[in-house]
Amino acid sequence: MATNNNAPLGIEAELFKAADKLRGNMEPSDYKHVVLGLIFLRHISESFEAKHAELMAEYPEGAEDRDEYLADNIFWVPKEARWSHLQASAKQPTIGKIIDDAMLAIEKDNPSLKGVLPKDYARPALSAIMLGELIDLIANISTRTEKGQERDLFGRVYEYFLKEFAGSEGKRGGEFYTPRSVVKTMVEMLQPYKGRVYDPCCGSGGMFVQSERFVEAHGGRIGDIAIYGQESNHTTWRLCRMNLAVRGIDADIRWNAEGSFHKDEFPSLKADFILANPPFNVSDWGGERLRDDPRWKYGVPPRGNANFAWLQHILHHLSPTGTAGVVLANGSMSSTQSGEGEIRKAMIEGEVVDCMIALPGQLFYSTQIPVCLWFLARDKSNGIARDRKLRDRRGEILFIDARKLGHMVDRTRREFSDEDIEKIAGTYHRWREGAGYEDIPGFCKSASIEEVRAHGHVLTPGRYVGVEAAEEDDTPFPERFAELQAELEEQFAEADRLTGVIRERLAGVLAR
Q1: Is the dihedral of CA 216, 222, 228, 234 positive or negative?
Q2: What is the pLDDT of residue 251?
Q3: What distance in Å separates the CA atoms of residue 456 and residue 342, rounded to the nearest whole number?
Q4: pTM to 2 decimal places
Q5: What is the mean pLDDT of residues 414-436?
Q6: Minimal CA–CA distance to 43: which of 145, 143, 116, 133?
Q7: CATH of the domain spanning 172-496, picked from 3.40.250.10, 3.30.1330.130, 3.40.50.150, 3.90.1700.10
Q8: Helices marked H in 170-283 — which ranges?
Q9: In this structure, are strands 396-401 and 444-448 parallel, antiparallel, or unpaired?
């Protein structure tokens, strides 16, 4: 039986349903900051109050010592910003200003939160009655959990709200939220157990949350990984900072409007693990200003598409034994436009492509078409995953076709179950370690570089695993149409390649 790894706590869904009802005519893109800011404020206030009570009982003179809170990664919350004060003021017509003042006071006393918290609750567009009802609603988040579990409870509520707002916003929601089952697949593949984890387009921080979960689930400690992230959208950067803070995750997350290509915040960083879901097929990335950039080791990316700029930026930041997982549009596996085919060929021949995974459609909020996962390795000749030695994988690439996996959670969206994720990640681990891996027709294939060359350096898994024809009657039309569209694009690309070869040969004949 499939396990839904997104199963809510119960109160999460009820809270969101009630909060969404209070939204009225507000756009989800505006309303999410109102709600998430209050959830964050409630969380840090609860954490502070719990620590304060503990100190009063055991060490009263330390109750007003800020260092006592800092030592436990707990924010100092001044009296006027504590949840009890807000809840007592919830019915006042000035509640918007009271919330803004609370946010300002928290930022003033906690420099790491400067510029992070929303502070526009007093604007006329927000109803004081709605804000009061929202405070009462968020007060219903029960904190009667075992000691140390409050953080996870609020973190899960925060994440659930992020997911639901992403669904409400559709395409725009995909810009800040990568579906949890996709992130979990990438994390389980790479196993970021210890070391530096980096995301150059980190959105709301889901990659980092799942990485920390992996560490804890396998007996490690928060702090075993050092987290680095960059984001060019300021409001998304704020969501990320709050998402990590509500979980007590310490991270170096930086923002600038120019983005990772033009103002790399970590120019000397060499990460052990990189997980990224860059925006797909970005055409206005300013590539014409970076023609001679040293990051383009495998070829200058085309000005009209940033896909191979992202891949090479990520490779540039990998440590000598680093590995990366990247979500990209399917076209990146087969496109030959504007030199992309040559860059892909150089990466394959340069032995940095480790594994390719074809994903089913409808996994993402931002697009209905299928996408793929690239897994890169700086050195395929060796390495260690957790405590296991990896075999020499040079001359091979693993292809996994996961298009038949997953289950529909509603009319438009699919998710992977824990069993699906284990099937994908387990296949990769067995292949990397050389222990019990076997090709499975229709699902996975360890292909030689010679086979990849024979396919014109196209990396579409279906070409290698021998996918069986899907029964059209069993496949939802949008998914079937998206698959056919992707296959057609591959055929167009191959036709363009063959046309080029024929023209070259004809030119050669005429030259004689």
Answers
A1: positive
A2: 94
A3: 10
A4: 0.82
A5: 96
A6: 143
A7: 3.40.50.150
A8: 180-190, 206-217, 234-245, 259-262
A9: antiparallel
